[in-house]
Amino acid sequence: MEGLTAVQSRISEIQSRMASFAAGGPNAAWLSAASAAGLTTSATTASSATTAAVGTSAETSVVQAAQNYLGVPYLWGGTDPTKGLDCSGFTQRVYADLGISIPRTSSQQATAGTAVASLADARPGDLVFFDNSSARAGIDHVGIYLGNGKMIAAPQEGDVVKVQDVGTPTVIRRILPTTTATTSSSSAGGGLSGVPYSDLFTAAAAKYGVSASVLAGMAKVESGFDTTAVSGAGAQGLMQFMPSTAAGLGVNPLDPASAIDGAAKYLSQLTARFGSTDLALAAYNAGPGAVASAGGIPPYPETQNYVRKVTAAAAAYA
After folding, report:
1. Which of 63, 78, 178, 264 could bridge across to 208 with cysteines, CB 3.0–4.6 Å?
2. Which parts of the sequence belong to the NlpC/P60 domain (predicted)?
């Protein structure tokens, strides 16, 4: 992911493109769509009318980049706006315009960036995800949050990219980079005061380049910080290692120092393999093979809940 500075450096370019798209072409319909949603027709006023929450230039640039594609027809599997876009092709294209790479499908995109706890905490530019299909479990639709209860999305066959009510998202993810101060605090484990074994989490995080708050969140969800815990499946100790996994890592699962060090090492390996913390957590819970086969977080309620719970716990410790 490009840094915040790189995103901001492209705002002028995006605004220039806005002017050309507004004049005509496949996105001429964006004027009426924006007006209906309470947005105005110029790049400057649209960003202020969307919501007062558009507090950073990076957020504004995402909203404006998304508005470039209003009126583009929906096309299943589409990634070329001259032909059509599907929901995740649209969101991927918007972030690519800003120099930010995200995965192709909505289920994969739902693991990118960082979790947002609720719609009340959402910011313009956040990705909002939905499970709309009763035929199969899992994320199957994505849009970009605009603020004020609105999102912009490529909805369905026969429709176009448009602004619509956001409804109730299943998952919300923030793709834009967070501030350096927040990242530093999280990595250092500054919010772990009073957490059992906080010194071990902090040391292991620094050793393997992972988040101390995520490690602590894993321990809370896995065992409730109980070093003697044994699950019905046979997972052991603070970090709930299966004996075979522990043996492969050279870990004593019942020793907290060894277990935390091993969990940090394993989390680092999984993150390097799958490219995100959420996928690494899913692999820690369900196994790397399950994540590889699913191409994202597997559609297992236990694993999906595990990722959400650890992420929430980590956020509280950050």
Report:
1. 264
2. 56-183
Structural contact between residues 211 and 271, judged by C-beta atoms closer than 8 angstroms: no
158 and 93 assigned to the same domain? yes
Domain of residue 132: give its range.
4-174
Answer yes or no: are the C-beta atoms of 90 and 96 closer than 8 Å. no
Same domain (yes/no): 258, 123? no
Question: Going residue by residue through the chain (318 aa), what tens digit of pLDDT does each one get?
Answer: 444 445 455 545 544 444 444 444 444 443 444 344 433 333 333 333 333 334 467 888 899 999 999 999 999 999 999 999 999 999 999 998 887 888 898 988 887 888 888 899 899 999 999 988 766 667 899 999 999 999 999 999 999 999 999 999 988 999 887 643 333 334 444 478 889 999 999 999 999 888 899 999 999 999 999 999 999 999 999 999 999 999 999 999 999 999 999 999 999 999 888 888 889 999 999 999 999 999 889 999 999 999 999 988 888 887
Rg (CA), the chain: 21
Terminal Cα distance for the chain, rounded: 21
